[in-house]
Write a structure and sequence with these properties.
10 helices, alpha/beta, Aminopeptidase i, Domain 2, EC 3.4.11.-, Aminopeptidase, nine-stranded mixed β-sheet
């Protein structure tokens, strides 16, 4: 895959994945096209050598893998991990608000959202809805309004003269989006709006809406930015970028070595769930793949946890350690924290640097300032659950957890090339 094609497909992937459900559905379609076979956790598995497989959980997490041609207990598995979720605003179960003739929806903040950028954006709504259909069956369906259907208007500066000095955001009172105007006595309900959209979008007749998990998102498309197109701007770059890179790397391997991609949900809220990195999903898949040889296989394996890093902001350079300020378009960032917020050790970092150097590709290192708190990733959680040697790495970006984030147009492709080589390398440990 060439650089230009890689980035064009990245933009399409980002635009088509407004929620984790849509991201996993998109990845499934690409795996199906490449000849991977879907597995069902409720059924027995019979795995063949040199074959690709994938399994999903809750529709928001996925493990995809190639079995390779060798005994996995002695050859090990080359693993890459990412997460499908991003900070956002989710609709509450009883969200309807009618105020001054406006119909609004109450929202819950999911993850560490940078709230101010959500104002004055064209927002749409997407996610999963559980319904009772016209045959009396309980079923799930994905929904995406696609067009702008909501707006969170700022309060005019004339009514808040201190807005540019200090404007705090109250998530309960300031964030309910406006979705339409309603007349006095109007009985429009949110479930009825959902039923109409479901029928229009998929032809399914929903007798009753039983539940939903819906998120607002910015309708602005992912795009190149800069006079020389040096950057890519998009929503959900953290961490759909790494999901895309990991998927493309797995699809472009030779298939000789055992390789695996795990994309977990719920990283932004701690990863404690059935499909999160602190849950049993990946371990359960490895149990069924490796059987009694699982411990030996893991001892021969390595995990690369790919999650975006903080690029040094030119307006806030003092927020970085002076020797560890990653620059956009100067390579992926090896993330190090000796308090184990990142799982990198000298061995895992050394292997990545070696492969990158062999390919003539750049790499950088990141350590948070000693007087600042450090974030974390699925890396330490996966390492702790499995006992696998792990590296934390990521593409540097601006605006992490904003509604729109920015990366360098070169860095994703660089990481893809290194991860592809890692996934087909004969020996990693």
């Amino acid at each position: 895959m060439e650089h230009i094609e890689f980035n064009k497909e990245l933009l399409a992937f980002l635009n088509g994945s407004p929620t984790p459900w849509h991201a996993v559905a998109t990845m499934k379609a690409r795996l199906d096209e490449a000849g991977f076979k879907e597995l069902d956790e409720r059924e027995d598995w019979t795995l063949e050598s040199r074959q690709g497989y994938y399994v999903t959980r809750n529709g928001t997490s996925m493990v995809a893998f190639r079995t390779g041609s060798k005994d996995v207990t002695t050859s090990g598995i080359r693993m890459v991990g990412a997460h499908t979720d991003s900070p956002c605003l989710k609709v509450k179960p009883n969200p309807e608000l009618r105020r001054k003739g406006y119909f609004q929806l109450g929202v819950e903040v999911y993850g560490g959202v940078l709230l101010n950028p959500w104002f004055d954006r064209d927002l749409s709504l997407a996610g999963r809805v559980t319904i009772l259909d016209d045959n009396g069956e309980v079923r799930d369906t994905l929904i995406d309004f696609t067009k702008p259907v909501a707006f969170i208007p700022s309060l005019a500066i004339h009514l808040d003269r201190e807005a540019n000095n200090s404007r705090a955001v109250n998530p309960q009172t300031d964030l309910p989006p406006v979705i339409m105007q309603v007349a006095d006595g109007d009985s429009t309900s949110f479930p009825e709006l959902l039923k109409g959209q479901i029928q229009e979008q998929s032809g399914i007749i929903a007798k009753k809406v039983l539940g939903y998990e819906l998120s607002f998102y910015d309708t602005a498309s992912a795009s190149f930015v800069g006079l020389r197109d040096e950057f890519i701007a998009s929503a959900r770059m953290d961490n759909l970028l790494s999901c895309y890179i990991g998927l493309q790397s797995l699809l472009n391997t030779t298939g000789d070595e055992a390789a695996l991609l795990v994309c977990n949900d719920h990283e932004e809220v701690g990863s404690v769930s059935a499909e999160g990195a602190q849950g049993p999903f990946l371990s359960a898949v490895l149990d069924r793949w490796c059987g009694a040889g699982k411990a030996r296989a893991i001892a021969h394996s390595m995990m690369i946890s790919a999650d975006n890093a903080h690029g040094i902001h030119p307006n806030y350079a003092d927020r970085h350690d002076q020797n560890h300020g990653p620059i956009l378009n100067q390579g992926p960032v090896i993330k190090i924290n000796h308090n184990q917020r990142y799982a990198t050790n000298s061995r895992s970092a050394g292997l990545y640097r070696h492969i990158s150097d062999e390919l003539g590709l750049p790499h950088q290192s990141f350590v948070v300032r000693s007087d600042m708190a450090c974030g974390s990733t699925i890396g330490p959680l996966t390492a702790g659950n499995l006992g696998v040697t792990t590296l934390d790495i990521g593409v540097p970006q601006f605006g992490m957890h904003s509604i729109r984030e920015l990366i360098g147009a070169e860095d994703g492709y660089t990481l893809f090339r290194v991860l592809t080589e890692f996934m087909q390398r004969e020996r990693v440990l």
